[in-house]
Structures are given as structure tokens and as C-alpha cells.
Amino acid sequence: MATSSLSEPRSLPTAYPVPLRLDRRDAPHSYTLKNIGDEPLRGISFSLLGPGLMRATPPVLLQPGERLRLRIRGTGLSVGTVLVVRWFRPGGDEYLWRISF
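That's the PilZ domain-containing protein sequence above. Prediction below.
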């Protein structure tokens, strides 16, 4: 007798916590991003949406415990500005993290 797939329990993937911490201590002149996870993050890149200026950088590799300083300039960063951080996990999965100022 065939069983219905609706009656079988489905295993859901475990939630993946953002492995990054943003330090705003030197804001608004610079921000420090730290990899607080246990795996390297590959191809990290950044996009700034809204008011503000940020230097374009090539994608980088951030090992566990490493830090990266971002310099973002402009007036009105706290109103409508969003930083989008993009990275790849070792398996190739892509992730995006939006940070509002």
C-alpha cells in the first residue's frame, strides 16, 4: 500500500544565523564587520542603497575571527540608507544581509 507524502514528517533545514557582527563604534566615519562564524565566507561584497558614498571593492574572503573595515560617508545615513552584504558559504550557497542605518 502506498503512503501519502502528506502523512510523512518533513525535516526542515536548520536556520542559519548571520555569521557577521557590525561594530558601529566609529560611526558615522567607519564600520567594522567581523566574521563571528566558524567557516570562511567567500566573495563578500557590499552595496549601498540610499544616501551615502562607499568605495567599490572587489569581493573578499573573510576567515573566522577576521575583521573588515568599511568607510561610508555622507549626510543623512540614518535616514533611508541600507547596506547589503552578500557572501557565499563553503558549499556555494549565496546569502544576503540587509543592514539599516
